Amino acid sequence: MSRRWSIARQLFALQVLVVTLLVAIGTTGAVLLASRDAQAAAEAEVIAVAETLANSPSVIGALRSADPAASLRPFTEATRSATETDFIVVMAPDRTRYSHPTESLIGQPFAGSVDEALRGGRVVEEYRGSLGDSVRTVVPVRDPGSRAIIGLVSVGIKTDEINRELFAQLPVVGIATGIALLLAAGGSWLLSRRLRRQTHGLGPAEMTRMYEYYDAVLHAVREGLVVVDRDGRVTLINDEGRRLLGVEADGPADLPPEVAGLITERRPTVDEPVLIGDRVLVASRRETRFDGRTLGTVLTLRDHTELRSLTGELDSVRGLTEALRAQAHEAANRLHTVLTMVELGRADEAIALATAELAVAQQLTDQVVGAVEEPALAALLLGKSAQAGERGVELTIDGESRLTGSLLRGRDLITVVGNLIDNALEAVAETPLPRRVGVLVREEDGEVLVRVRDNGPGLSPDQAASAFRRGWSTKGDGHGIGLSLVRQVAERYGGSYDIHTAGEGGAVISVRLPVPS
């Protein structure tokens, strides 16, 4: 077939050809069966007529008479007309005919086989006789008393007559064949039309090339791709998608609850953060449509774990830089004040001012370093304290804070403490002065307790219930991820997390992380 033919057209042509061959074979078989049935019916008919005549008292009486031919001819002709057979021949055992449709043949010997009938049996055969080809039978006529064979009866139907009856049925067979072909062709056309819609009229070469490109792109693309049909069943996950979601290559495509929730929510999603294990993924969801019909959902996933980590570090560095710049500015102001006081001859007051400022800074450093032996966490607390000061927030480290040694992974502690403090700083950012944030980090009963409180507006019960959910944010932009990261760390350690409103207002978030044995 031409390469330009679409798959639908090729399938239609092939189906029409196969159906035509099947119908032709079926019709031929039906004609052959009908011919055989007509032959068998003719044989049964001549046997029935011959047996009836052989047992007829009229035939037996005529054979016993002095002139059998005179008695038998009118009777056999009437019977032949009534039974619609072509000839009835009654003969003597020596083959001499007593009756025949052709009067000139009466008295002539019968042409055909009679040996089996003379032995008391029956002869059934196709034979070319004086009237042409026919199906005939020969049966014996017995004397009722002695059971001796006193004659023979032959009944026949010409083959032309049998064929004529068969040909009379051919129009019906032809009409049935035509209807079958039309129905089969119509069904093939409908099927090819549906296939053409589904394949968009593409030919085998185009389909093969498209599949090769499609498969190559799916394996090469560095974005995770999840395709779901209209019923919510996963139909495709590419290699990167399986890697990001932790789905085995040969296993069932069981999506994590976070991703499954994005698909079932049926809402537009663009670059929404999703936590899968230790990964921070950015997901975008859209429905696929063709000709106004919804075909399913496509979800793309990008790994932003390292980017989020770098962004967090960059934000921390930027915050520390701003804090240091502010502190440098304040230090310059204080130094200028101290120098001016010295120039004015008020050296004692200048020394007292400088010593007081140094004591406050050193007190905070000594408190943090003395309470927290984890260096990364101590540095984080000092940095966040400077950042809070720059933002006009008073960040205090609870005097009961105590953490000896590296009980947990430093990265996990930084994730929990850093995100809780950032969340508290955001909560008090728009509140009137004074703005306060308190931090407690303590080991108790085999657990590390991290508690951060603020004097912000607090959370409603609905907000508190959703605070640790993926994408929750007080800004309502759906991009909140800090508390989700905290929840992820807590669940990985088998710990707990809680949020409630303090008695004097504001929110208190507590996270308990069991110390691994």
From TrEMBL:
Protein name: Sensor-like histidine kinase SenX3
Catalytic activity, EC: 2.7.13.3
Annotated GO MF terms: ATP binding; phosphorelay response regulator activity; phosphorelay sensor kinase activity; protein kinase activator activity
Keywords for this protein: ATP-binding, Cell membrane, Kinase, Membrane, Nucleotide-binding, Phosphoprotein, Transferase, Transmembrane, Transmembrane helix, Two-component regulatory system
Top-tier EC class: transferase
Signal peptide as annotated in the record: none
Gene Ontology CC entries for this record: plasma membrane
Catalytic activity: ATP + protein L-histidine = ADP + protein N-phospho-L-histidine
Pfam families: HATPase_c, PAS_8, sCache_3_2
Domain Histidine kinase, chain residue ranges per copy: 298-517
GO terms under biological process: osmosensory signaling via phosphorelay pathway
SMART domains xrefs: HATPase_c (SM00387)
Domain (PAS) ranges: 210-250
Organism: Actinoplanes philippinensis
Segments crossing the lipid bilayer: 166-191
InterPro entries recorded: BphY/WalK/GraS-like, HATPase_C_sf, HATPase_dom, His_kinase_dom, PAS, PAS-like_dom_sf, sCache_3, Sensor-like_sf
